[in-house]
Amino acid sequence: MYSVIAIAGLALLTAALVYLRYAQDENRNDITLMQWLRKKPFRFQISPWIKKNYPGKVKWIFYLLAGSFIFMAATGFLFSLFGFIRLQGIPLAMHAAAGGLFAAAVGAGAFFRTRYYNPDEIDEKAWLSSRKSRRAIAYWIFLLAAFLLMATALIMMMPFVHFSFIRTAFFIHRWSALAAAGAALIWTEAALLSEEKSHA
Amino acid sequence: MNSSPMSSKPETMKPRHFFLLGIVLSLLAPPVIGQSQEVSEEAEVKSVWDGSRTTPVHIIPLKDEFDEPVIPTTSYPLPFSTRYSCAPCHDYAVVSQGFHFNAGHSQKNGRPGEPWIWVEENTGTLLPLSYRNYPEAFHPDKLGISAWDFTLQFGRHLNGGGITEPSLEKMTPESRWFVSGKLEINCMGCHNADRIQSHSEWAKQVMRENFRWAAVAAAGMGEVTGMASRLPPTWDIYDGPNPDDSEYAVVPEVKYKAKYFDSRHRAFLDIAGDPRDDLCLACHSVTPADTTRPRMQSDVHSDAGLQCVDCHRNGPGHRIIRGYENEAKETGEPYRSEFTCRGCHLGKKFPGKRGWDNGRLGAPYPAHKGIPQVHFEKLACTVCHAGPIPAGEAARVRTSRANRLGIYGIAQWSTQMPAVYEPVYVRNHEGQIEPRRLMWPAYWVRMEDSEVTPVKPADITAAGESILNVEEQAAALLITLSTGLETEGMPGLIHRGRMFTPNIDNKVDAEYVDWETPEDTPVFAVKHKNEIIPLIPEFNPFAEEPDMEAEARIQEVLTALQSHETAPAAPGIIYKNALFRLDQGWLDKEEWSGPAAPAPKLVWLTGDLPTPAVSDFHLRTLHDLTGNEQTLTEEQVTMILQILEETKGKGNQNSHFGYISGGRLFMLGEGGFLQNKRHSRAEPVTWPMAHQVRPVRQSLGIHGCKDCHSAASGFFFTEIKGSGPLLSQNQAKKSAASFMDLDGYFQRLFGLSFTVRGVLKIVLIAALFMTGVFLVWIIGRLLKKHAGLADKGR
User: Fold this and answer.
1) Tens digit of pLDDT for each residue in B539-592?
2) What is the pLDDT of residue B685?
3) Fewest C-beta atoms under 10 Å: which of A158, B1, B192, B268?
């Protein structure tokens, strides 16, 4: 069930974000979605964004956060969605090690970046259509999911926690990971994906 | 008067051919059982049990093996037969399907269990056997081991029925079933509530080949005298006692105890529906080899008051619940999973059940605090909860069946070999890791192409008995001297500071003595009250005045040696430059032209050169083996292999011989030297273990992850060294991780990662604090915003 929801959910979310971009593109000139996509109507703007938001050595926090999250998502989802075996052995050890880096990066990132995601900036009337709102919402969802991911990981390592609670923690861990992945998708669309200037 | 049943029971006397017909019919019965369809245990229960929770009082007429009433007051009553005595209420054919009896004919063998191990010390044989299709054990039929051989070898710990009750076609020519009778299912062996039930008596009767008398003797209902093993093969039960021999070939006979019978000759059998643990443990004990009885730990379930049969239940079909995880799936009987560890402790729902059968026997629900879920998928419960805690090396244990435990008497029945070790964690065919017991097999093999066939110990003994029985030969020589000498004390052989003296097992014991032997020559001496005196005192053989005392002793020794059973020739004694021998009973002394003997040297006068009574080979072997549990040296193996290679015959030029021990295959290489290599058949034999279960506080992982996940973990890094009857430095070594198909280096690295786990936890806590603060802040902000508090504040 989790696999179906996860795959379908992430696919639908990606499709929804693409469609949102398409719908919001004022210059699409009545072309179909597929025609619009063929024109490559957007591009990643990672470097300029990092230079602006994570100046100097602080940029490593972003790289660390993104790198560890991608690795954890890859190992975690690979085994839970497509693997015939549970995450274990070397991948689990690396997943846990990446989790430590992720936790450090999330903590530092929250310290440096939270002030830029002021909830007051969320446009309640048009939170979906506003990229700024989407970015802020995605950020807070990601932070909440990261909190749950870290909390459940910590709980699972605690020797005083009852096994039934560990199973619950594991359940929360999986769904938090899915929420974090969804939030990361939204945030990437909203923060790093800009309109193609030429197209505009 | 011949008091055979024919004469003692005139009222039931029948023509002999009726009895023979009875014999034939009784012999034909087992295959019918074997072919019968295995029926569901639950179906049996419904058909037999009336719902009462009581055990009926068994005051029943006993029947003999011909279905005739047993009249205990007759002069030669026959032993009772369970097949016919229990038959009115219990279907013998159904009971025969039970796991304790069906090895020979059932296809449903389930999880592999402990094989029977054929232990033959002199030939260094530890051969795993099983009638079930266990992959690491040999099927006795394939090795030419008949039901008769098997029963004689293992009947001590078999409870009758099945293999020990063979059909006519399974009776091999050399067998003596018609003399001994068959070993019927020994119902009382498990169900006798009377504490007189004796497993030792059972074993004793089996070894005497008193098969048909074994059950009644073991149940204590009668005294059994005589030995079927000493009777001629033509003897028949209806020949009755032999009045001409009351000393040696005494016919077995039972004298029933009157107290068990009423006036109508009905017997009171004190039957327990649920066998008591003691009777299970007669065959299922496993004990650490280095412990003492007061220090023994029992299973936590036993400590809690549970009996073996509380979990290992069965219905009339005796298809006992073994309690392993997949048993329900394999048998197609879901109720069996209710009696696994998970069934009682975890409350798992089973197909068609709502989970109400769980938590049986007051089983507590485990907390398993801090244990990641992967452990419950990859490990059997017993990994953490059963057997000894893994330490630097696996613990050596002794098991009832492998080491012949629980047979009491003056004679020592138990054996040190085979060396069984536990726990070894092995990945089973379902990918789950489970604890097992392990033993290294040892046996002689014939190799043709890639096929390895064990050679029967008797064939090896026939090939080189004199090479193998070194200790026995030395003991026999010393015993010959002791019986022939008029001296107090026990003669012994002193060599290189050790004195070898014969022991009760017809082998030798060795002790270190402060005694210098001249020029490495063995010296015969007598030990009496801690004083060691040379058998032949020092003297000058060619002195002008003969030493009469010394020469008398020499004559005495030579006379004794003449009577030595295995003397290859006339005895002689060489001392200095003199050779003493007996000539028609008189001592003859002549000059010895060979090397002078610094101490009296016992020789056999074979041909031109005298042969030492104790050769250098004997001395080397005695030094190497005496006091060791090993029974073979590499030199002995080399010599035996040479004989086997020489005598294998022209038709088998492509076959070679070898010997397996300690995880290696030993073969003759170029130049006739002993070489060794790995071989799949030399790999250890393992079987799952479930007991004994430790208390929670002694579980693996109770002290945290590092119980297993550390660089020095006993769980992963215990080294299992090969062991066996061969005294050799060439032994296999395997790491515990290799049994689990795990990479040892990774596990070491993974174990090291747990040393930084504390840092990881600190990082997580710090990150949680940081993100938590912001989350609280945003939640506060949102609450204020939606509750209108922000506007009010403004």
Assistant:
1) 888 888 888 888 888 998 999 898 888 888 899 999 888 899 888 888 888 888
2) 96
3) B1
Q: How many angstroms separate the CA atoms of B521 and B597, rounded?
A: 8
Instruction: Give the ranges where B425-547 is alpha helix by DSSP (H).
Output: 457-468, 470-484
Nearest to A163 among B368, B377, B767 (CB): B368
Question: Cα(B419)–Cα(B148) distance, rounded to whole angstroms?
Answer: 26
- Cα–Cα distance, B617 to B442 (Å, whole number): 23
Residues of B with CB under 8 A from a CB of A: 366-374, 377-378, 704, 746, 749-750, 753, 757, 759-761, 763-772, 774-775, 777-778, 781-782, 785
For residue A199, pLDDT over 60 is answered with no
Its ipTM equals 0.89
For A72-140, the three-class secondary structure string (H helix, E strand, C coil) is HHHHHHHHHHHCCCCCCHHHHHHHHHHHHHHHHHHHHHHHHHHHHCCHHHCCCCCCCCCHHHHHHHHHH
Q: Where do the DSSP E strands lie in B270-319?
A: 286-288
Distance, CA of B168 to CA of B181 (rounded, Å): 12
Flag if B378 and A88 touch (Cβ within 8 Å).
yes
What angle (nearest 5°) sits at the alpha carbon of residue A73, between those of residues A68 and A76?
115
Give me the total of CB pairs closer than 8 Å, taking one residue from chain A and one from chain B. 103
What pLDDT, in 10s, does the model give residues B646-657?
887 655 677 899
Cβ(B331)–Cβ(B726) under 8 Å? no
Q: DSSP code of B48?
A: H
The predicted-structure confidence for B160-174, as pLDDT tens digits, reads as follows 999 999 988 888 888
Contact A104 B767 (CB under 8 A): yes
Please give the torsion angle defined by the CA atoms of residues B98, B99, B105 and B109, in that order, rounded to the nearest 10 degrees. Answer: 140
Alpha carbons B344 and B340: distance in angstroms, whole number: 6
Q: Band the pLDDT of B689: cuts 50, 70, 90.
A: very high
Percent of chain B exceeding pLDDT 70 equals 91
Closest C-alpha to B91, from B57, B55, B45: B45
Of B372, B746, B770, the CB nearest to A111: B770
Contact B764 A154 (CB under 8 A): yes
**What is the reported pLDDT for B14?**
40
State whether A110 and B768 contact (CB < 8 Å).
no
CB-CB under 8 Å, A89 with B369: no
- Residue B246 has a pLDDT of 84
**CA B477/CA A28 separation, integer angstroms:** 112
Angstrom distance (rounded) from CA B93 to CA B622: 53
Stronger pLDDT, A121 or B127, i.e. the higher one? B127
Q: What is the pLDDT of residue B650?
A: 55
What residues does B657 pair with on adjacent strands? B446
Q: What is the separation of C-alpha B490 from the centre of its chain, rounded to a whole number of angstroms? A: 33
Is the separation of the CB atoms in B522 and B493 below 8 Å?
yes
Instruction: Give the angle subtended at the CA of B622 by the CAs of B617 and B625, to the nearest 5°.
Output: 120
* A38: helix, strand or coil: helix
For the entire predicted model, the pTM comes to 0.83
Tokens encoding B372: 């990641």
Residue B36: pLDDT over 60: no
Q: How many CB atoms lie within 10 A of CB B627?
A: 14
Number of CB atoms found within 10 A of residue B82's CB: 23
* Mean pLDDT (chain B, rounded): 87
Other CB atoms within 10 Å distance of the CB of residue B558: 21
Cα–Cα distance for residue pair B569/B742, rounded to 1 Å: 62
> Which residue, among B197, B189, B251, has the nearest Cα to B225 in the 3D structure?
B251
Q: Is the pLDDT of residue B351 over 50?
A: no
Q: Is the pLDDT of residue B41 over 70?
A: no
